Amino acid sequence: MDNDQVPEYRKTVRWFIASAIALLIGLFGAMLDAAVAGSAPGGPALQPASRPSRMHSAIQETRNTNNRR
Description:
Blueprint: H1 6-39, H2 54-68
């Protein structure tokens, strides 16, 4: 490595470390948010969907048809 490349290398390493730290902080924040939302009574993780999806309806219809046989 030439002498004139050392400052650029150090700058790159600093940016890489800073981005890794930012990534870890974001990951920790997301995990904390999921843990808090999942443990609250009636939180978003525990609320049922307002209406069944089309796939859910199709599965239920198939099950009902199979049970009649």
